[in-house]
Amino acid sequence: MIAATAIALSLTLSLTLSAPAAARADVPLPGTGGMKYQEKTGDPVRLTAYGLGTGRAYLRAAKGAAFAWEKGLSEVSVAPGGRLAAGVPTGYRSGYDALVVTDRTTGTSTRIRTVKKPLTASYASWSRDGTKVALTVEQKVSGKWRVLGFTVVDVAAKKARTVRVSGLSAQAGFWWSPDGNLVSRHGTGLRFHRPSDGAVVRTLPGVGLPTGPEDAFSPSGRRLATWCPSRLRERLCLVDPIAGRIAQRVDVRPEAVFGWWDESHVIAVMAHRGAYRLSVVDLKGEVTRVLASVPARTWAAELWLSFTRTS
């Protein structure tokens, strides 16, 4: 019996030692002061776009790891499935804002009109089926930007529809929920809107504000990441969207969260020795992997990152 156990342990150890490690690549990120993104084969998400404020947006090539500056775009993000990219231009054309949809395999781009000057439509959010993009509509009033509603772009039909919503906070913002509604911050919680007319579908009061700008819902949709309300000591909260309440509080204080890595980890920027690290953080608040070192100057330049799920 002892001999059989020893043989089994030896075989397990041998298989473990001989198993090939996941291939790793250090992907250079131009314009970031030397940042390199540490990628491995089999990662559940892929970094496909990033930028510095609204001044520079970089898009990854359809194949390989090269990123290129998208001149004329203030932001860009890749759709689920990876084929299409949506970008918001830096300026109006013929008095209209637009969404530029690019087929990454062919390089062909289509410009779809959204709102008329002086309105702007930005902060693109892809629906999970990759067929629509939601944009937040704003207008500068007395020197301050105010959210007025949203625009939904049907990518296949190349048409945009704008809906004004009353009673929004100045920094409301709109993004898709997994079930096809639009979510916005409301007070110290969240509100779900019907995309056809902006009607309120549901309100989750007091659960905290969405982490954004990436999808705050976990891959399954069973968890929703928010910044904990000020009454709580923790910084990161996990909301049960069905029950409409905070289900878990995570004792971690990230500078930002850029969506979910998988069902049990988020992608967060953490302060580290006078600079920052882009990290995978579990739901106990522990860093389980470092994806990139972020220079303090780069983070101060309003670095943002956008990921596309690979499975």
- Walk across the major sheet and give the strand order: 5-4-3-26
The tally of beta strands, per DSSP, is 26
Overall pLDDT: 93
Order of helices and strands: HEEEEEEEEEEEEEEEEEEEEEEEEEHE
> For the terminal residues, how far apart are their CA atoms?
43 Å
Please bin the fraction of helical residues.
under 10%
Percentage of residues in DSSP E strands? over 45%
How many H/I helical runs? 2
- Cα-atom radius of gyration: 21 Å
Biggest β-sheet, characterized?
A: 4 strands, antiparallel
Based on helices, strands and strand pairing, what is the structural class? mainly beta
Outline the low-pLDDT stretches.
1-19
Query: So what's the overall shape?
Result: globular
What would your notes on this structure say?
The structure is a single chain. This protein is mainly beta and 311 residues long. It is 7% helix and 51% strand. The protein has 2 helices and 26 strands. The protein has helices spanning 2-18, 296-300; strands at 24-28, 36-40, 45-52, 56-60, 67-69, 73-78, 84-89, 96-103, 109-116, 120-126, 132-141, 144-154, 159-164, 175-176, 182-186, 189-193, 200-204, 209-210, 224-227, 236-240, 245-250, 256-262, 265-272, 275-282, 287-294, 303-309. The strands form 7 sheets. A 4-stranded antiparallel beta sheet has the order 5-4-3-26. A hairpin with a 2-residue loop joins strand 11 and strand 12. The longest helix is centred in the N-terminal third of the chain and has 17 residues, at 2-18.
Give the SSE map.
Elements: H1 2-18, E1 24-28, E2 36-40, E3 45-52, E4 56-60, E5 67-69, E6 73-78, E7 84-89, E8 96-103, E9 109-116, E10 120-126, E11 132-141, E12 144-154, E13 159-164, E14 175-176, E15 182-186, E16 189-193, E17 200-204, E18 209-210, E19 224-227, E20 236-240, E21 245-250, E22 256-262, E23 265-272, E24 275-282, E25 287-294, H2 296-300, E26 303-309
Antiparallel strand pairs: 1-2, 3-4, 3-26, 4-5, 6-7, 7-8, 8-9, 10-11, 11-12, 12-13, 14-15, 15-16, 16-17, 18-19, 19-20, 20-21, 22-23, 23-24, 24-25
